[in-house]
């Protein structure tokens, strides 16, 4: 559920593992699209042990997928034909698979035929996409053979052996965004390739296991409503006169890191991102809550959102930092700031002088947040906390402008001074002032 | 004739400055509009982020400098008339010094107010708008306002008294009876400088800078 960004900057984590990623908050798990379906079936006549299908809505993780594959490959044929599409989501099947009584419009006739003729297909509608991404690696480990990337032409030239395992990978495109072909045509083309491959395999009469899945979902985060990015996040507590730090970056941001987001919510006016941690600075359960709200402000006649509070909840105590004074942006945009801390040019201030937040320090490095109007899983234009001119520049400009005006005025005065020149006679005799005794 | 007017140094200077100013404003405004960044134009941010000390010291500086400009201008006008008139009518010299004194009084008002206002500037320890506090902002703006008030009042008072004094000197040179009457006009002119001082004192009466 994490999306990757390009690793460009050095951070506190050494450059060798410097991959800093964004975190997306997933809510309303009912119609989430961050998973990839996986379909497994065997050639005619071979039956797999019936494995318990996952309960509805359950997302199959990497471990569980490995178990499913292991069970299938231990009993079933060890020649695996893997159809790996670039992107796939369940919606592709519901939209183009003739699922609404219009079987004739389905673009998956070959796939459906294969599944119907197979005795016990395994359908996993929701495999977490880091797991589906790693399916080649898992199959490689289990079959102990390297994958062979093929297409139907090269397959017809290959001689397969039922006794030795083989992993044949067929990459299928899903170029959404290429205006030449619509998704329907691409899926139809892929289904044709599947049909060709399966018929070639049939002619070779080698039993096989076929898997149809993808590397990543085709429909990204339509339900994502909060985006948070940071290069570094740390908290510190003041204990017996010393500040003890704890770096939360590795458990929040990074490739493959899935922080727990229980309790997060969002609606049209309020958004709350809750990051749950364990064992932070001696507290067993520790929560970092970012509460945002948006509303219409009549003077500027537009909607703005503010980061109302950053709360640290631990052992029943809540330390609150107010951020609404400084962290704000128009509701359509995201807010970005190089450093959002409570101690260094603080943008977050403790809620009151007696608040437990006075014993804490929170620091975000290269912070970007958007809590509303998130579309397509990407940040909107980032309203930066640093303006074009700093206050110092403005003060300097003002006083300089004033002095320039004064100078102009003075110049004007001097330039319009006239000396008496009525009796000037440049050609006459010069004035002589004789020395008096 | 237009060309002659254009060749005038003044015209070039003022055209240039005006053009630069308005074109800057126009281009900045267009950029704000087309990039939809109008929300970043924040007057409140400017007023709260600029230091109250800047405003206070601008007020002090303007108080004394504008007053001195007024006094100087007045003295320059009166003085040249007295000296010129005194060539043919030496008796006016001593009597008309009172006009110079009226002009000078304007400068004295200015310096007194500058000292009074500068005594109100105190240290405070806040760095953010919340920690600086409303009272310090009020102090800064009041001092700026008071400085402007006394400065501009004295500026125009000084010019006024100067021109009237110049007329008084020249009239006196012609006919000695006229001087006393014209002096009354000068007194009225001088009063307006005093009004500026009174209002400035009222503006800074509630100023309390500091923690």
TrEMBL record, chain A:
One of its GO terms (molecular function) is ATPase activator activity. Residues 1-29 form the signal peptide. Residues 387-425 form the V-type proton ATPase subunit S1/VOA1 transmembrane domain. One of its GO terms (biological process) is regulation of cellular pH. It is a single-pass membrane protein. Keywords: Membrane, Signal, Transmembrane, Transmembrane helix. It comes from the Eukaryota. The chain crosses the membrane at residues 393-412. PANTHER family: V-TYPE PROTON ATPASE SUBUNIT S1, VACUOLAR ATP SYNTHASE SUBUNIT S1. This is V-type proton ATPase subunit S1. The lineage of its organism: Eukaryota, Metazoa, Chordata, Craniata, Vertebrata.
From TrEMBL, chain B:
Gene3D superfamilies: lithium bound rotor ring of v- atpase (1.20.120.610). InterPro entries: ATPase_proteolipid_c-like_dom, ATPase_proteolipid_csu, F/V-ATP_Csub_sf. This is V-type proton ATPase 21 kDa proteolipid subunit c''. Proton-conducting pore forming subunit of the V0 complex of vacuolar(H+)-ATPase (V-ATPase), a multisubunit enzyme composed of a peripheral complex (V1) that hydrolyzes ATP and a membrane integral complex (V0) that translocates protons. V-ATPase is responsible for acidifying and maintaining the pH of intracellular compartments and in some cell types, is targeted to the plasma membrane, where it is responsible for acidifying the extracellular environment. The keyword Transmembrane helix applies. It holds the Pfam family ATP-synt_C. Belongs to the V-ATPase proteolipid subunit family. One of its GO terms (biological process) is retina development in camera-type eye. The gene is atp6v0b. One of its GO terms (molecular function) is proton-transporting ATPase activity, rotational mechanism. Keywords: Hydrogen ion transport, Ion transport, Membrane, Transmembrane, Transmembrane helix, Transport. CDD domains: ATP-synt_Vo_c_ATP6F_rpt1, ATP-synt_Vo_c_ATP6F_rpt2. It is a multi-pass membrane protein. The chain crosses the membrane at residues 12-35, 55-76, 97-121, 141-171, 178-202. GO terms for cellular component: clathrin-coated vesicle membrane; proton-transporting V-type ATPase, V0 domain. It comes from Scophthalmus maximus (Turbot).
């Amino acid at each position: 559920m994490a999306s990757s960004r390009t690793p460009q900057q050095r951070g506190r984590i050494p450059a060798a593992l410097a991959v800093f990623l964004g975190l997306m908050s997933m809510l309303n798990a009912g119609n989430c699209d961050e998973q990839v379906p996986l379909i497994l079936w065997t050639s005619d006549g071979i039956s797999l042990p019936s494995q318990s299908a996952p309960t509805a809505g359950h997302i199959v993780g990497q471990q569980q997928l490995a178990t499913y594959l292991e069970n299938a490959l231990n009993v079933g044929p060890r020649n695996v034909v893997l159809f790996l599409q670039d992107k796939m989501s369940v919606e592709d099947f519901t939209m183009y698979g003739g699922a609404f009584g219009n079987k004739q419009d389905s673009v998956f006739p070959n796939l459906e035929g294969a599944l119907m003729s197979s005795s016990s297909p395994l359908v996993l509608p929701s495999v977490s996409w880091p797991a589906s991404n790693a399916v080649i690696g898992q199959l490689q480990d289990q079959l102990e053979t390297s994958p062979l990337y093929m297409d139907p032409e090269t397959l017809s030239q290959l001689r397969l052996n039922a006794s030795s395992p083989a992993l044949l990978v067929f990459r299928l495109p899903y170029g959404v965004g290429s205006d030449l072909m619509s998704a329907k045509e691409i899926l139809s083309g892929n289904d044709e390739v599947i049909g060709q491959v399966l018929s070639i395999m049939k002619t070779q009469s080698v039993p096989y296991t076929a898997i149809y899945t993808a590397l990543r979902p085709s429909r990204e985060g339509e339900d994502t409503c909060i985006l948070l990015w940071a290069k570094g996040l740390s908290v510190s507590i003041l204990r017996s006169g010393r500040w003890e730090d704890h770096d939360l970056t590795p458990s929040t941001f990074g490739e493959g890191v899935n922080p727990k987001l229980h309790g997060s919510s969002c609606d049209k006016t309020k958004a709350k991102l809750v990051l749950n941690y364990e064992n932070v600075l001696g507290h067993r359960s520790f929560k970092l809550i970012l509460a945002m709200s948006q509303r219409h402000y009549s003077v500027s006649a537009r909607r703005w959102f503010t980061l109302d509070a950053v709360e640290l909840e631990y052992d029943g105590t809540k330390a609150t930092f107010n951020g609404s004074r400084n962290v704000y942006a128009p509701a359509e945009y995201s807010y970005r700031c190089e450093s959002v801390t409570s101690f260094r040019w603080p943008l977050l201030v403790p809620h009151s002088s007696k608040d437990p937040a006075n014993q804490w320090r929170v620091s975000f490095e290269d912070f970007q947040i958007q809590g509303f109007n998130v579309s397509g899983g990407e940040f909107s234009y980032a309203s930066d906390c640093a303006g074009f001119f700093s206050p110092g520049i403005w003060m300097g400009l003002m006083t300089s402008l004033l002095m320039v005006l004064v100078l102009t005025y003075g110049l004007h005065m001097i330039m319009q001074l006239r000396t008496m020149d009525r009796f000037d006679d440049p050609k006459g005799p010069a004035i002589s002032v004789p020395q008096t005794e | 004739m237009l060309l002659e007017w254009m060749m005038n140094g003044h015209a070039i200077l003022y055209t240039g400055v005006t053009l630069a100013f308005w074109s800057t404003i126009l281009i900045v405004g267009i950029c704000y509009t087309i990039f939809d960044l109008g929300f970043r134009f924040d007057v409140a941010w400017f007023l709260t982020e600029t230091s109250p000390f800047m405003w206070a010291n601008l007020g002090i500086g303007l108080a004394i400098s504008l007053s001195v400009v007024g006094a100087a201008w007045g003295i320059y006008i009166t003085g040249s008339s007295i000296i010129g008139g005194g060539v043919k009518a030496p008796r006016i010299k001593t009597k008309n010094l009172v006009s110079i004194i009226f002009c000078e009084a304007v400068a004295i008002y200015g310096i007194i107010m500058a000292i009074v206002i500068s005594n109100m500037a105190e240290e405070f320890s806040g760095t953010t708008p919340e920690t600086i506090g409303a009272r310090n902002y009020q102090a800064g703006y009041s001092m700026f306002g008071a400085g402007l008030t006394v400065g501009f009042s004295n500026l125009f008072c000084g010019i006024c008294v100067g021109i009237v004094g110049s007329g008084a000197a020249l009239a006196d040179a012609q006919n000695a009876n006229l001087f006393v009457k014209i002096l009354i006009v000068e007194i009225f002119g001088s009063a307006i400088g005093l009004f500026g001082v009174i209002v400035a004192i009222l503006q800074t009466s509630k100023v309390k800078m500091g923690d």
